[in-house]
Design brief:
Radius of gyration: 27 Å
Strand order of the largest sheet: 4-3-6-7
Largest sheet: 4 strands, mixed
Shape: elongated
Helix content: 40-55%
Order of helices and strands: HHHHEEHHHHHHEEHHEHHEEHEEH
Number of helices: 16
Structural class: alpha+beta
């Protein structure tokens, strides 16, 4: 694996040098080509050789303009073209705006002091992520109470399907599903590079990926992600005003994507129907429509003595605070094979993080909890964790402590709807229901 990574690093370095020698300065080269075309157009006499030279010069200019437009399109991270006209100015403006918006000029420390030095901001970011991704003590009694409500639904047949050896076809299929121009990780290579030059690098990539998935080789060398900080507000001041997005290496994302493609088929068996995000044959709009009808029913209910309430929950740093032992325990109770769980454990425990501060990579964090936003596997692992909350609510409803909302007498009772890490709770407005929700949230929090 180390030899492969050295080759990729050498390739990236060579490509950078080639780009400079081949394309140089776009603006300078375009101006030179434009001047050449202008001189030929203004020539006093025109011969057949002059016209041929003019056509060649125009072709060179067109190619340079197309290359410049593609360059700024990639820099802007915009996935659409607004029209058939040249969009270079639009992309340049978007890329410049994005760069200016992502530039961090100051950060507030834990004492409320404004820090502007590079060293000071680096320390703030390092300390913040060290704390955020450090495991908390697990309440084993609470863990047992949560897992006791989760049924075992993964059988031997499904586990056999999950744990079948991965194949070369699995690698190529996973690569095809990856977006070609997403931001690269620390190796600097996008999925497009591997997709376009698979006939050259395919065998080496396949050996590395299958060695990890089938032979249990460590993936620490490919599992360092770079955290980029995306502002959540127009005027971010503290670290809580930024959303951390992890830029993972394509080789790691291939491993993660291959696991996801198998896991997705099993998830509908273990995830309650109240969850609508990220699952095949389920649309998040379904839960939105149900939520709309339930809220409308609450607002316009005129008959009967009962009243109902709705409660919206938004878990702070939900992905970042997932405790790994909780995830392992839930997966085990669901019935997942120990080898399959170990494969996912390898993805999480081998990870490390650096962060980008104004274009420079700094810091080093070794997480002991959390799911990285940017890892293809993370949304699906979060669904498994959130099933604990869903099952606790179902349990309280089953024993009569929590009374959900029914649109009609024969309609099913709805006590909650989940939208990934956002939740809507519905209940009859009674002390019993309020206490059941409080008890559930306290237990899930522990």
């Amino acid at each position: 694996m180390e030899n492969f990574l050295n080759k990729i690093g050498a390739c990236a370095s060579s490509l950078q040098k080639w780009h400079v020698s081949k394309f140089g300065n776009f603006k300078k080269n375009i101006a030179k080509a434009q001047q050449q075309v202008s001189n030929l157009n203004n020539a006093v006499t025109r011969t057949s050789s002059t016209m041929d030279e003019l056509k060649k010069s125009e072709s060179v200019l067109d190619e340079l303009l197309a290359q410049e437009e593609e360059y700024w399109q990639q820099r802007s991270r915009v996935d659409w073209l607004q029209s058939g006209d040249q969009n270079t100015k639009f992309f340049h403006a978007h890329a410049s705006s994005r760069k200016a918006g992502n530039k961090i000029s100051s950060l507030m420390d834990c004492n409320g002091n404004k820090i502007t030095s590079k060293a000071g901001m680096t320390t703030i970011i390092q300390d913040y992520f060290n704390d955020l991704f450090s495991a908390s003590a697990i309440d084993l009694q609470a863990l047992d109470l949560v897992t006791a409500t989760i049924p075992t639904t993964i059988n031997a047949e499904i586990n056999d399907s999950l744990t079948q050896p991965f194949t070369v076809a699995d690698v190529t299929n996973a690569l095809k599903t990856m977006s070609p121009d997403k931001s690269p990780g620390s190796d600097g290579m996008s999925a497009m590079f591997y997709q376009n030059y698979w006939h050259i690098v395919g065998n080496s990539v396949t050996d590395v990926v299958l060695g990890i998935l089938n032979e249990g080789q460590s993936m620490e060398l490919i599992n360092n992600a770079i955290i980029t900080l995306i502002p959540k507000t127009n005027s971010p001041a503290a670290m809580t005003d930024y959303r951390p997005i992890s830029l993972c290496n394509v080789i790691y994302k291939l491993v993660s994507k291959m696991i996801v493609l198998r896991l997705k088929d099993a998830l509908p068996l273990v995830i309650s129907e109240t969850q609508s995000a990220f699952l095949s044959n389920r649309l998040i709009t379904d839960n939105i429509l149900v939520a709309f009808e339930l809220v409308h029913h609450i607002q316009h209910r005129t008959r009967g003595g009962k009243s109902y309430s709705a409660l919206k929950l938004d878990m702070s740093k939900a992905f970042d605070r997932v405790e790994w032992p909780f995830l392992w325990a839930v997966m085990k109770k669901m019935g997942f094979d120990s080898n399959w769980i170990a494969l996912i454990q390898n993805c999480l425990t081998s990870s490390s993080l650096s962060f980008s501060l104004n274009g420079e990579v700094a810091g080093y964090v070794k997480p002991s909890r959390g799911l990285r936003q940017g890892d293809p596997l993370s949304p699906y692992l979060f669904l498994i964790c959130s099933e604990g909350l869903s099952r606790l609510l179902h349990h309280e409803e089953a024993i009569g402590n929590l009374q959900g909302l029914r649109l009609t007498r024969r309609a099913p009772s709805v006590s909650h709807l989940l939208f990934a890490d956002d939740s809507l709770l519905f209940c009859e407005t009674t002390n019993s229901s309020a206490l059941a929700i409080e008890r559930t949230l306290n237990l899930y929090h522990r």
